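Support reply, case 0932

Customer input (verbatim):
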Amino acid sequence: MDRMLTKVLRVGQLYDFYNALLTDKQRDCLNMHYLQDLSLAEIAEEFGVSRQAVHDILRRAEQTLEEYEEKLGLVARYSDERKLLAEVIDSLAKLPPGVREMPEIEQVLNKLSSLLEDTREV
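Our regenerated output:
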């Protein structure tokens, strides 16, 4: 995967979990740059500051997000839980047809599948 795309996805994940812990200006700059795809010049014009100031705000915000993840690990935990949930669903789906079709097993499989689908929105 392209390095820039990887960075955008990483910052997006961190932003989803930790944006409330950023300053308003950091949150706004990250939102405008990564989510609205505005250039540094466009953001600088919006805030009445230099492109370098926007670059510095973005760099500090990204560093802050990474520090929160290093301390709290919410993104890693979320990812690990999704992988484990997918493994459990796969294991249940591989049960012999007679067992898999038992109402209790079907209920559990449906609930777990629903949970996995719900977590894709985060």
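We compared this against your earlier run and they match. Two observations from our side: Helices lie at 3-18, 24-35, 40-47, 51-72, 74-93, 97-100, 103-119. The two ends are 21 Å apart (CA to CA). Please reopen the case if you see a mismatch on your end.
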